[in-house]
Amino acid sequence: MVSRRDFVSRAAWIAAVSATPGLFARDLAKTPRTTEGPFYPDKLPLDTDNDLLIITDGVTPALGEITHLTGRVLGLDGAPMRNCLVEIWQCDQQGAYLHSGTSNVEKRDRNFQGYGRFLTDPEGRYYFRTIKPVAYPGRTPHIHFAVNRDKERLLTTQLFVKDDPGNARDGIYKSLGDQQAAVTADFAAMKESKIGELAASFEIIVGHTPEEPDTRGPGRGAPPRPR
Q1: CATH architecture of structural domain 4-205
Q2: Quick one: three-class SS letters along 108-151?
Q3: pTM (2 decimals)?
């Protein structure tokens, strides 16, 4: 357990060291878009901060491997994009989403927030404390991401776990082909952690215009949601 003050301090430190030098003044490949999926929360939680392990002033943390997830939102020219709202949502340790349609809602970890958001700083940085994603029937472990600016959806994508055996069987991951590396992160042990925490970094490259809506079915490329 860490206090809120410790959490904020650690967030600032991890966000600072997550920046990778040398990404400016060159064109970058845009992070590939993927489906939003059917489990974007149909009712947002009261607590929507970037710490998914503790809900409001609760004292019982969520189950799972604690993960510090950092990165930056950059434009195609490598310039940081400030004031972008980064959203993440994922299933809990039991494979249940924060959604009324999740298949095993009765097993949902009530201490896991399931959804969080963070406004990027002047360097385009974001930070979340969450759990390492787990598999659920039909899908390899992943975390859903959305990047918004001025209430417009710039990108919808998913982050996958490096070397997870389920990746080879996952239809969405396989469809990315040679773009897989752009949405795959190593969830590595933090050497300084005494409680087995992990760290993962995900640089997100977006265009400056909203993504085109995907009309292939419910939950795919949904239009921007009111904030």
Answers
A1: Sandwich (2.60)
A2: CCCCCCCEEEEECCCCCEEEEEEECCCCECCECCEEEEEEEECC
A3: 0.85
